[in-house]
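Protein modeling request. Please complete all fields; requests missing the sequence field cannot be processed.
Requester role: graduate student
Desired output: 3D structure, token encoding
Chains: 1
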Amino acid sequence: MKNFVSIAALTAALFAATSAFAGSGGGCHFHGHAPVKESIIVGCANEQKDELVAKGKLDASWKAVRLDKAETVEGKNMKEWKFTFENPAEKEATKQTLYMFYTLTGNFIAANFTGK
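Delivered output (116 residues):
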């Protein structure tokens, strides 16, 4: 009986710990195999862009830029989200379009200016 109570307590603790990392409202870190709603993943892409600005990887002018286009595309191994941000204020023409890629389950893959 003592072992049963210990196992039940451990199981409950594990379920409580994993639920803290998943789902909406818990940030942009997802577990599981279910596709994430477009509205949630769009918010994650905007947050990721803002983080790149904060880290100095993107010019401050990108802070005001909002999502231009969201679509699903065929990636190397699977379908993925592709987000496009346009910044006409960017001085370097080859860096006026930022692309971000996420898995359908919400995990960040990459950001670049090539779209590939």
